[in-house]
Design goal:
The protein has 144 residues and is of the alpha+beta class. The protein has helices at 2-50, 62-74, 103-113, and strands at 79-87, 93-101, 120-130, 134-143. The protein folds into 2 domains: 1-55; 62-143, Alpha-Beta Plaits, CATH 3.30.70. It contains 3 helices and 4 strands, in the order ααββαββ. A 4-stranded antiparallel sheet has the order 1-2-4-3. The N and C termini lie far apart (57 Å).
Length: 144
């Protein structure tokens, strides 16, 4: 019986530590992370302006992210393109792009997508060989 009471007390103590310490610290860390992201974005914009370039565009919502991706794809010579854009978890939008083409064409597409002015970030990238010296690419990414 004393073992059960002792176990119950330890469980209550663990719950108290979780509710009293862990959860507030997680919230504080999330708030600090948001502040850090805002400061980093402002510094990047200032750095671009001091170098004589225009500030990177913030691609905030799904529509503008889709338009940015379509503009990048308009000059790309890839085929079998599939594009999905959805709202992001925190802010911005998340997207997935699949396409096929010759390796050189796929690399040109990467150049367009990784342009700092686009406001796009690449996440997971998968390149797989296909017949007739082509490759298939699948890219997961997000907008800033």
């Amino acid at each position: 019986m004393t073992t059960r009471v002792l176990a119950a007390l330890f469980a209550l103590a663990a719950l108290g530590v979780h509710l009293g310490v862990t959860r507030p610290l997680r919230q504080q860390a999330a708030d600090l992370g948001d502040g850090y992201r805002e400061i980093r974005t402002a510094r990047q914009a200032a750095r671009h302006l001091t170098r004589g370039r225009s500030a990177p565009r913030a691609v905030g919502d799904v529509g503008s992210t889709r338009r940015t991706l379509l503009a990048s794809l308009s000059a790309a010579r890839v085929s079998g393109v599939r594009l999905a854009v959805r709202p992001g978890r925190a802010q911005g939008a998340e997207w997935r792009l699949t396409a096929t083409g010759e390796l050189e064409q796929v690399l040109e597409l990467f150049d367009r997508l990784t342009d700092p002015a686009s406001g796009l970030r690449l996440g997971r990238v998968t390149i797989a060989p296909r017949p007739l010296s082509t490759v298939a690419v699948e890219i997961d990414g997000a907008s800033s």
